[in-house]
């Protein structure tokens, strides 16, 4: 046994997302997040090329999408690379939030490794599980052993241990304090982890300009009081100074747009961003419209509305419409839809394209680029508005889709509006947070510019992939 405390970074290194941080304290081994690296995956895979399901774990290990570590992965997936079952060598995963770049690759982990996450985070995972299709990268809540011979065979359920702010977690030799931080998804937590050498702080993804800055400020105060020996901080937008963005500005801007038209308004935003969801739901109510959501959105509402702290409407709310798209036969038949979708087909607020088309001026429809085909059936009137409430494209693939989006809008004569506030802190906010917490050592992750974080703390260590750092 060794008493050393160390950190090893297997993701989030010179990239935005993909966080996988191994914390070792003596014989205790805990991963903080276990996410998908979108950047790494996009180097090798795209729309028509994916890791081969038949090769199980093999493609993911070969292409560096997963670290090749003993005692981490499911027995059935180890068999796909001709390995025998391995005894789990990780005591837990601390999951900060449900964004895929932090959570997705939990799907590969051994079922005896418990996952600690916030109660709201688990609700989101359940909703995504119910609404999505089962594949190797989406089996977080449970999984089917591979190869799947009988699709009716029972799934293996993972062990989730849920918490809220104020609770303390004891994992072997570690004591963990989860504290909520504001981000573009609810149920997001930073962690103060008390080790044998002192406190280690993990910020998760964080911002101060959102709807609930007081949550982040509470976390910063607790982190400062812990006198941390190390701070693992996100730095997504370290290269940006003050932007003066806020959710309130998005609401005011979009409210003015909607008030200024009697035609259809469509908004494209991340539905898991509950602040943005409430923004457009409130605008719809204030302008005597209804917020029209997709079948997948309705599933999220079903789960998120169970948490009274979120103040999210249920799918049968009077100001919600559920859009029923054409599938299969194109005749809206029950068998055209997945099992999870059928529960919404006959509810009183389910509208097909014909009814949507006749009530355009009474709606804000939530549709993304990937749902543009619905406009063919809805037939938006010329002069209708499309609000893009997401970040602007920042890579070649996104630019291609962005151009295609504008081609659709041009075809239907729709106007385009950009209105967004990021889920990540600006460079000024990050510097302020780090200086306030005042760690002995700063480790920058979740950024393409970690060198820009040098000098913020007394000692900044630039991290490398798979290189243990002794604390």
Outline the secondary-structure elements.
Blueprint lengths: L4 E5 L11 E5 L2 E5 L5 H7 L13 H5 L12 H5 L12 E3 L5 H4 L11 E4 H13 L10 E2 L12 E2 L2 E4 L5 E3 L2 E7 L8 E7 L2 E5 L10 H13 L4 E5 L12 H13 L5 E4 L5 H13 L3 E4 L1 H10 L15 E4 L15 H4 L7 E2 L1 H6 L4 E4 L7 H5 L6 E4 L7 H17 L2 E4 L8 H11 L4 E4 L23 E2 L1
Parallel strand pairs: 3-4, 4-5, 5-8, 12-13, 13-21, 14-18, 14-19, 15-16, 15-18, 16-17, 19-20
Antiparallel strand pairs: 1-2, 1-22, 2-3, 6-7, 9-10, 10-11, 11-12
Helix pairs in contact: 5-9, 7-8
Short description:
This protein is of the alpha/beta class. Helices cover 27% and strands 19% of the residues.
Overview of this protein structure:
With 471 residues, this protein is an alpha/beta fold. The protein has helices at 38-44, 58-62, 75-79, 100-103, 119-131, 213-225, 247-259, 274-286, 295-304, 339-342, 353-358, 374-378, 396-412, 427-437, and strands at 5-9, 21-25, 28-32, 92-94, 115-118, 142-143, 156-157, 160-163, 169-171, 174-180, 189-195, 198-202, 230-234, 265-268, 290-293, 320-323, 350-351, 363-366, 385-388, 415-418, 442-445, 469-470. The chain has 14 helices and 22 strands. The protein has a seven-stranded mixed β-sheet. Strands 17-16-15-18-14-19-20 form a seven-stranded parallel β-sheet, sandwiched between helices. It has a six-stranded mixed β-sheet with strand order 9-10-11-12-13-21. The chain is 27% helix and 19% strand.
């Amino acid at each position: 046994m060794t008493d050393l405390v160390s950190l090893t970074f297997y993701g989030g290194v010179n990239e935005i997302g993909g966080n996988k941080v191994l914390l070792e304290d003596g014989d205790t081994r805990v991963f903080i997040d276990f996410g998908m690296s979108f950047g790494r995956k996009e180097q090798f895979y795209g729309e028509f090329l994916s890791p081969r399901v038949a090769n199980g774990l093999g493609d993911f290990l070969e292409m560096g999408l997963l670290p090749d570590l003993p005692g981490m992965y499911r027995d059935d997936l180890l068999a796909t690379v001709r390995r025998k079952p391995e005894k789990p060598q990780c005591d837990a995963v601390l999951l900060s939030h449900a964004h895929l770049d932090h959570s997705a690759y939990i799907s590969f982990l051994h079922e005896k490794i418990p996952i600690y996450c916030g109660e709201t985070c688990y609700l989101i995972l359940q909703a995504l599980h119910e609404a999505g299709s089962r594949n190797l990268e989406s089996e977080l809540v449970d999984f089917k052993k591979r190869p799947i011979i009988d699709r009716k065979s029972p799934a293996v359920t993972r062990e989730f241990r849920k918490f809220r702010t104020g609770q303390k977690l004891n994992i072997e030799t570690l004591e963990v304090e989860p504290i909520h931080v504001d981000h573009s998804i609810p149920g997001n937590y930073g962690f103060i982890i008390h080790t044998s050498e002192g406190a280690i702080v993990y910020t998760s993804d964080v911002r101060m300009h959102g709807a609930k800055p007081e949550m982040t400020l509470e976390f910063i105060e607790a982190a400062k009081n812990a006198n941390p020996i190390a701070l693992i901080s996100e730095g997504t937008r370290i290269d940006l100074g003050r932007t003066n963005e806020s959710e309130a500005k998005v609401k005011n801007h979009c409210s003015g747009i909607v008030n200024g038209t009697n035609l259809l308004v469509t908004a494209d935003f991340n539905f898991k961003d509950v602040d943005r969801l409430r923004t457009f739901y409130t605008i719809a109510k204030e302008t005597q419209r209804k917020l029209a959501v997709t079948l997948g959105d309705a599933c999220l509402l079903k789960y998120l509305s169970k948490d009274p702290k979120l103040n999210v409407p249920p799918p049968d709310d009077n100001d919600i419409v559920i859009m029923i798209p054409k599938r299969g036969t194109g005749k809206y038949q029950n068998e055209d839809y997945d099992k999870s979708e059928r529960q919404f087909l006959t509810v009183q607020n389910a509208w097909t394209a014909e009814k949507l088309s006749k009530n355009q001026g009474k709606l804000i429809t939530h549709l993304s680029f990937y749902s543009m085909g619905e406009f063919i059936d809805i037939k938006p009137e010329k002069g209708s508005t499309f609000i893009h409430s997401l970040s602007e494209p920042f890579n070649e693939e996104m630019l291609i889709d962005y151009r295609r989006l504008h081609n659709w809008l041009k075809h239907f004569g729709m106007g385009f509006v950009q209105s967004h506030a990021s889920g990540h802190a600006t460079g000024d906010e990050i510097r302020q947070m780090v200086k306030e917490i005042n760690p002995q050592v700063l480790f920058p992750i979740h950024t393409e510019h970690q060198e820009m974080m040098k000098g913020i703390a007394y000692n900044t260590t630039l991290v490398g992939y798979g290189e243990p750092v002794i604390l």
